[in-house]
Amino acid sequence: MITSNIMKLVGDAMKARDSVRVSVLRMLSSELKNAKINIHDPNATEQRELTEAEEIAVVRREAKKRKEAIEMYEKVNAIDKVESEKAELLILQEFLPAEVSEEEVNKLISESIDNLKATSLQDMGKVIADVKLKNSGVDGSVVANLVRSKLS
């Protein structure tokens, strides 16, 4: 679990004097704590820990923010900011499961289209949901682009 390891990793990064890593790990720790606080279970008497899937969702959300920032900074040609965001993204990706290859994603999409008998872009949401259900490690934007190209 990410939450249990993060403080040790912060300490290691501080000893190594890696300020970028310390900053990213502290931000991630904060986001994980916020996610834990935001879990609302009316039947629970005390707060529960995040599941591994919930932790990964938080890391994915933060990684997505970095990817979007990289795109924005590249558009305005802010190279120093791009490099900074890429460094943060690399640290966040250490906590994510390995990305699924495009070939595997295509296979999953084809199976889903066949199973759901999808024929038009109106079925796109169903196909994406089915693919993400089969493998939660796929990038939603990649899936959406591939599904769009297959159904149009």
Care to describe what's here?
The radius of gyration is 19 Å and the shape is globular. 73% of the residues lie in helices and 0% in strands. The mean pLDDT is 87. The protein is mostly helical. It has seven helices and no strands. The protein has helices at residues 2-15, 19-38, 52-75, 79-93, 102-116, 124-134, 140-151.
Please name the defining characteristics of this protein.
152 residues, mainly alpha, 0% strand, globular
Brief summary:
With 152 residues, the chain is mainly alpha-helical. The chain is built from 7 helices and no strands.
Distance between the termini: 41 Å
- Choose one word for the global shape: globular
Low-confidence stretches: none
List how many beta strands DSSP finds.
0
How much β-strand is present in the residues? under 5%
Number of helices: 7
The residue-averaged pLDDT reads 87
> Topology as H/E string?
HHHHHHH
Radius of gyration: 19 Å
**Residue share in helix:** over 70%
List the helices and strands and how they pair.
Blueprint (H helix, E strand, L loop, with lengths): L1 H14 L3 H20 L13 H24 L3 H15 L8 H15 L7 H11 L5 H12 L1
